[in-house]
Amino acid sequence: MLEVHMVLRQALQNVWTEPLEYKKLMVKKVSPQRRELLENSSYGHHQKELFILFAQGFTHLFQILVKAKKPLVGHNMLMDLMHLHDKFYKPLPESYEEFKRNIHSLFPVLIDTKTVTKSMQKKYLIPRVPGLLEVYTVLCSSSLNPEDPPWPVIALASDCSRYAEKKSPHEAGYDAFLCGSVLLMSAHLLLCRSTDDAVEADPSFSQYLTVLAEHVNKVNVIRGGVTSINFSGEDAPCCHPPVLVVHVRGWAGVDERQIYEEFKSLCRFDVRWLSKNQFILLSTKYKQVRRVLRRYKHHPQLQVSVYRHWRHSPGVNCLLQVSGIVALWSLLAFVLGGASS
Q1: What pLDDT does residue 5 have?
Q2: Confidence of residue 98 (pLDDT cuts 50, 70, 90)
Q3: CA-to-CA distance for 79 and 85, rounded, in angstroms?
Q4: Which residues pair with 293 in a beta bridge?
Q5: Which residues of 89-115 are buried (b: 16+ CB within 10 A; e: fewer)?
Q6: What Pfam families does the record point to (predicted)?
Q7: 9, pLDDT greater than 90
């Protein structure tokens, strides 16, 4: 729409354009004198500012968020932060530490609801569920709702009232509603169970931030060397279950999808191709790793074992093979050279 506005005003000196509703533009014929008067009026300057804001798009909202320095809330938000940095600030740096410093400078207070709810699962026996909508559904269940005081009332704006009746996952407004609701309910549950004293009927947001303090600036990481990135300090060390390697026998043309389908009834693994007949299995649960090792101990086609770099790495295997060939030729040369002398 901005392009249409600019083309019309540059090409035709006797027209005036005004934005109407979304993706609509009013074009009216005016005299050159009237056009000049409109351009120099306060209304004309206001129109120019609106078009500049329209041209900036989400960059304007990003600048507002950075300037406000308010808590930024997301769910599993690492990719979102990387996208914001790359598209609206600077290209992603090579240095991990520089990325952390930049994000912390832009957004001093981050709250990842994935990190918050993961920490509550064992403590409050919250079922382990995969997505934001499922987390919201679990928290809304009556078994978790504190009786005194109950959840805070979340009022929807008039143009978002449909969210109370209809689920719209992955729609920006609906996901924002879910994320904010999960944060508020999680903080309320933490506040109510953090003390034996009665909690006031209408807790302040600062009280909620206090109980969330240990989770601030810790963003969840999936399948990483750490469970979360601490944007305001050192990352906590993490101990992951061992990586598994699957050696396939008598199953021609097998691919990653087929290996995934084979194991998904037992647990959820990330599957990566390693070599012609070998695949890597990655899990975050020790229980799942032990279960698979037991179940496939004597399997006729799929031999599952713990990954050892010196044994399973294609690079190491190639190096060992080349070293073996060189050593064999050296031995033969020594034997044949000794015999000829």
Answers
A1: 64
A2: very high
A3: 10
A4: none
A5: beeeeeeeeebbebbbebbebbbbbbb
A6: CAF1
A7: no
